[in-house]
Target: MFS transporter
Amino acid sequence: MNAISGKERNFAGLPAAVIWGYAATLIFMVGDGLEHGWLSPYLIEQGLTVQQSATLFTAYGAVLAVASYFSGVLTEAWGPRKVMLAGLLIWLVGQILFIEFGLKQQNYGWMLPTYAIRGFGYPLFCYSFLVWVTYRSPERIMATAVGLFWAAWSGGLYVVGSYFPAYMLPKIGYIGLMWSAVVWVVIGGIIGLLVVKDEGIQRKGNSKEKLKSLLSGLTICVVKPKVAIGGIVRIINSTGIGALPIFFPLYLSSEYGFTTEQWLQVWGTMWVANIAFNLVIPYISDRWLGWRNTIMWIGSFGCGVMTLVMLYTPQIFGGSFLAMTLVGIFFGIVLCGFVPLTALVTSMAPDQKGSAMAVVSFGAGMSYFIAPAIVGAFIGMIGVHGVMWIFAGLYFLGAVLMKFMTLPDEEKQNENRYFTEKQTS
Model:
C-alpha cells in the first residue's frame, strides 16, 4: 500500500498531493495555534486563576486526546477526506462559540465547553492526513515523510502561530486575532480537502468491521505491547513542551520582566529551529543513528536536560532575551529527536498502521490533557521549579522506556548473536 505509481507526479519520492497536504496542515495549524502562546496569561489578566486556566486547557486536552485516538481508526474506516471535513467543521463551531459567548463576555461557563469542543478540530483534520502519509510514503523515506509533516504542523502551530500574533496583537487585539484564526483554518481546510484522496487505504466496509477498527487501537496495545510503550513516549514527548505556555511566560514576566511579545518571539524562534532540524534529525536517524537511539538520546534525554536549562537560565542571566532565545533554539533542536517515533511505532505493526497511528495520535492528544493537569495540581504546592523538574523527570523516563522499543529485526539479530556466542563458548 505504500507504493507510489510511476505515473504519479512526485517530489523527492513523495506524491505532489502529499506535499500540498503539508501546506494545508501548516495553514490550518496557524489558525489553531494563534492563541496558544498568550491565551493563558491573557485570561489570568482578565481575572481567572492559574488553576482555572489550567482546567480550561485540561478539558481541551481531554477532548483532543479522544479525537486523536479516533483520527487514526476513523481514517481507515471512512477515509481521510470525511474525517478531515468533520475536523474542519467542528473546529469552526467551537471557535465561533468560544469567541462570541466565552471571550467577549468573559464567561468561564461558556469558555470551558466551547474551547473543549474546539479540541476535536485539528486531530481529526491533521492526524487523519498523517495516517494517509504513512500509507502513501515509501518505507525507505518514512521517517523523512513524517518529519515533513511535523515540520508543517509545528511551523503553523508554533512558528507562524507565534510570530503572527506577536506582530498583529498591537494592531487588531486579542479578539481580532481569534477571528483571524478562522480565516487561516478555512483556507487550510479547503486546500486539504481538495488534494487528499481516499486511495491507498483499504477501508473497512460494514458496520461490524468499522466497530472492530475502532476497537483495534485498544486491542493492539495488548497484542503488541511495544505499540503501547510508544504511545506512552508520545505522551511524554509533548507534555513538557505543551505545558510551558500555561505558566512559564507568567513566571518570566513576574520574576524577570519579560513581555508577552518577547515570550512569543522566544517561543517562535524555538520552533523555527525545530523546523530547520525536523528535516536534518530524521535524515540522520534514517541513515546513521537509527530511530530508537535518536528518540532515546536526542529526544528524551535531550529534552530532559533542556527543560532544566530553560528553568535555570533566567536565574543565571536574569532577564536576558538573548540567553532565553538561545536556550529556545537548542530546545527546539533536541525536540526533533522524537520525530522518528511515528515511523518506529507503525513499523511494529505493519499490517495495522492505522491502529498503531491511533495509539500515537492518542498519546499526542493525551499530552495536552496531562500537561495542564500537572500544572493545575502541583503549581500551588511546589511552584514553577517543582513543576519543571516533574517534566524533566518524565523526559528521562521516556529515555528509559525506549530501551524496550527494539524492532523485530534487531531482536532477531540479538538472538542470532546469542546463539553464535553460545556455540563458540
